Amino acid sequence: MPRGRYSLHDPHDHTPLADEHFHCAPGPSGWRYVAQLTTPAGEPSGSVDLALDELGRPIRLELHAGGWQVRGAALDGVTWVRTDPTGTHATEGNVRAHAFTGPSPAFLVATARLLRLTPSAAATRVRLVAFTDPVLAPRTVDQSWALVDRETHATDNGPLTVDAYQVTALDTGEQHTVHLAGDVVLSAPGIELEDLDSPPSDLG
Question: Taking Cα atoms as reference points, which of 178, 174, 105 lies closest to residue 148?
Fold first, then answer.
């Protein structure tokens, strides 16, 4: 069960945004990721709870940020309920999309798990619903993912396979690279892996 800490920052000017203290693990039905977020000053600022089924589909998502809450799942595409900080207003959304995304590294692992790309495969288009800080506002985004490199490194705990994905935002053409090892993000724009207590899990 990997457990550790990511630091999140603005990918453009590198302003620190949050620390994400996480643990994740594969299970009999898929994979689960749980995290608590803190501000750079150490104050609690939100949480992430994401569970995937064995095919990589989101069977449960719960996000908290700025008093706002989102609960979602894969249902007729993806469906979610967003509740305001007072708890008096809740709005439901539904989009014919494949999964969810957002600032958390969990969503990069989840998308890679959903697509199950191979190095020889062509780029694959995916539609995601992104929940953006600070109020978890939903936005539909289209991306293209391609697995451009796979390397295996020898470690004290056995071989470690690192996958490099090229992710393209189809609305702007902007591209970036995401490096994953199992269910841990090694590097991505705005994300740094600061601590890891145990090796990544092999998601197959």
Answer: 178
Rounded CA gap, 190 and 204, in Å?
Answer: 26
Average confidence (pLDDT) over 159-186: 96
Going by C-beta distance under 8 Å and a sequence separation of 6 or more, which residues neighbour residue 28?
none
pLDDT band at 204 (very low <50, low <70, confident <90, very high): low
Q: Which of 158, 149, 143 is nearest to 201 (CA)?
A: 158
Residue 114 parent element (H or E): helix 106-115
Tokens of 130: 């992104």
Give the mean model confidence (pLDDT) for residues 121-130: 96
- Cα gap 203→199, rounded to integer Å: 12
Digit-coded pLDDT (tens) for 57-91: 999 999 999 999 999 999 999 999 999 998 889 99
Measured CA to CA, the distance from residue 82 to residue 93 in angstroms comes to 8
3-class DSSP assignment, residue 110:
helix
Amino acid present at 29: S
